[in-house]
Every structure is written in C-alpha cells, then in structure tokens.
Design brief:
About 2% of the residues have low confidence. The chain has 281 residues and is an alpha/beta fold. Helices cover 54% and strands 14% of the residues. It starts with a strand and ends with a helix. It folds into two domains: 178 residues, Rossmann fold; 92 residues, ProC C-terminal domain-like fold (Orthogonal Bundle). The protein contains twelve helices and nine strands. The protein is elongated. The structure holds NADPH dihydro-nicotinamide-adenine-dinucleotide phosphate (NDP) and (2S)-3,4-dihydro-2H-pyrrole-2-carboxylic acid. (2S)-3,4-dihydro-2H-pyrrole-2-carboxylic acid binds next to α7.
C-alpha cells in the first residue's frame, strides 16, 4: 500500500459517465484545482443535472455516454452499480476500438466484471473516493488490474488526487473494506454530528448554538487527528480527566457497545459491496 497527496495533471480529456453526487464532487475538485473545463466531459440522462454541471463548472455535458467519451482517453464510470453493466455494454465497441483507461467508482463492482462488460483486455482502475472530494479533502482507494501500465496508474492517481489523498490497494478484495471505511465513512461522521446536535438540543441548547458547537468540535478534532501526529486513543486520553465529564460519556459509549457496533456497521457495508457485485453481474 502506498499513500500520497499530489497535484493533478489537468491535460488529458476525461469523460464522466454519470453526473450525480460523486461525479459532481470529483468534477468540482478537478476544476477547483486547475483542470481546464474543456478537458472534462460528462454524460447524464437528466437535463437539469447536465445544465447544472455546465453552469457550475463550465464542462461540456451530453445526454449520451457515447458523445461524452469522444476524444477522452480516461473514462470515469460514475453510475450506480445497478446500471454499470448496461453502461459498459453500450460502450464496449468504443472501448475495444479506443482502448481507454476505464476508472470505476462503483461500490462492489469488480474489475473482472468491468473488463468483461467492456469487451475484454481493458485497462480498469477501481477507485473508491468519498464526497469531501468536493473540497479536495477526500481520500480515494485505488486498485488497478494487470492491463493498467505505469502511465495509466499515474494518470488515474493524478485525476483522483484532485479529490485529496490516494491510497493504492494491492488486493482487490480489500476494496470492499475501503468502501465501507472511507467511501461510506463521511456518512458515519454526519450521523454522529446529527446525534450530538440532537442531544445538545435535548440538554437545552439553542439549535444554532448546538450546530456551531458540534461542527467546530468535529472540525477541530479532525484537524488534531490529522496534524498532531498522535494516535486517536492518545488524543482521547488527553481530553479525559479522571472522574470527569468525558469519562462519564466515554464509559457510556463503551458500555453501549460503540466499538462492536462500528465493527458490525463496517462489516455489513463491506458485505453489501460484495452483494452489489453478485446481484448486478
Ligand atoms: N455518493 C458517494 O458518496 C459515493 C458514491 N460512489 C459510487 O459512485 C457511483 C455513483 O453514485 P452517486 O453519484 O452517489 O449516484 P447518483 O445517482 O447521484 O449519480 C449517478 C448518475 O448517473 C446517472 N445515470 C444513470 N444511467 C446513466 C447512463 N446510462 N449514462 C450516464 N449517466 C447515467 C444517474 O441518472 P438517474 O438519476 O436518472 O438514474 C445519476 O445522475 C455509485 O456507483 C457509487 O457506488 C463511490 C464513492 C462515494
Ligand atoms: O452508499 C453507497 O453505496 C456509495 C458507495 C460509498 C458511498 N456511497
């Protein structure tokens, strides 16, 4: 496994197939970090989505995937797992003729499936980003099949680097764990924020005050995790005065089974990734 944070190479044309939440986050990250708008093309069936992407980022938006891939050597497949097979099958003749590097962000769907649906012998990268990509603060797990050469890996990494840090994964089976930890992970933090906010309000705080207190607490704690070089357990220890308020709360979380719950949640998310691959084969 290698981890890196690098700048994108904005030169080559990239086609996004699917212009929804994840594509918007990645396109936003690319444009914000200096990619030329005319090097980004996107296909989405919804006119409102196309119009919004064109207006917000200046990218060219098309109704058909076949139009979007025109001149693009990197294809970002950003549709739901449930429609990935149909999208790839439609694009297979183009993939066979043009030999792009196909980068899929779909949960679960394997590189073997993608290669097969695109007609075979395809350079496939699986990428699992997350929505903080929109701020350049995401993290992406990357896996490349054996058809991807060093230049293809470099291009895929450069593209995803506009979304934040990247981590190469050698064993594709671990991509389901990546999805469960970091792909879905922002939702877990947002859920915690919701729960803390509701609890603060229940304790009498005004809603606005509760939101500010929770947001800044999560932001500050995340920065400490990132910038202090200390392990999470050590940072927690320093907040926890013996016999104090934090201890009362942490003991409540521990006795309520927070760690086991987190393990089960992540196990279930990874299992769902495997199910998505099987159900959409
Ligand atoms: N959201 C997230 O945090 C993350 C998502 N992912 C992955 O990203 C992928 C997309 O997820 P997300 O962005 O949330 O989903 P969205 O539903 O927001 O985006 C998918 C988009 O693709 C469009 N679409 C459907 N069929 C086609 C087609 N044939 N050609 C082009 N576009 C099409 C959809 O249109 P319509 O709505 O009309 O169907 C929709 O606008 C998924 O595979 C998911 O697993 C990965 C990491 C994180
Ligand atoms: O919920 C999902 O299936 C996608 C994949 C990771 C985040 N969102």
């Amino acid at each position: 496994m290698t981890t890196s944070v690098s700048r994108p190479s904005p030169s080559a044309t990239v086609a996004f197939i699917g212009g929804g939440n994840m594509a918007r986050s990645l396109i936003g990250g690319l444009i914000a970090r200096g990619a030329a708008a005319d090097s980004v093309r996107v296909a989405d069936p919804n006119e409102a989505t196309r119009r919004a992407l064109a207006a917000d980022f200046g990218v060219a938006a098309f109704a058909e995937a076949a139009e979007a891939v025109e001149g693009a050597s990197l294809w970002m497949l950003a549709v739901k797992p449930q429609v990935m097979r149909e999208v790839c099958t439609t694009l297979a003749p183009r993939a066979q003729a043009e030999r792009p590097t196909a980068v899929s962000v779909a949960a679960g769907i394997t590189s073997t499936q993608l290669d097969r649906w695109l007609g075979g012998d395809t350079a496939v990268v699986r990428a699992m980003p997350n929505t903080p990509a929109l701020l350049g603060a995401g993290v992406t797990g990357l896996y490349a099949n054996h058809r991807v050469d060093a230049a293809g890996r470099e291009r895929a990494q450069a593209l995803l680097s506009s979304a934040g840090a990247t981590v190469w994964i050698d064993d594709e089976a671990q991509m389901d764990a990546v999805t469960a930890v970091s792909g879905s992970g922002p939702a877990y933090v947002f859920l915690l924020a919701e729960a803390m906010e509701e609890a603060g309000i229940a304790e009498g705080l005004a809603p606005e005050a509760a939101r500010t207190l929770v947001l800044q607490t999560i932001l500050g704690a995340a920065r400490m995790l990132n910038e202090s070089g200390e392990a999470p357990a050590e940072l927690r220890r320093r907040v926890t005065s013996p016999g104090g308020t934090t201890q009362a709360a942490v003991e409540t979380f521990e006795s309520g089974g927070l760690r086991g719950l987190a393990a089960r949640a992540i196990r279930n998310a990874a299992a769902r990734g495997r199910e998505l691959a099987a159900a959409n084969d």
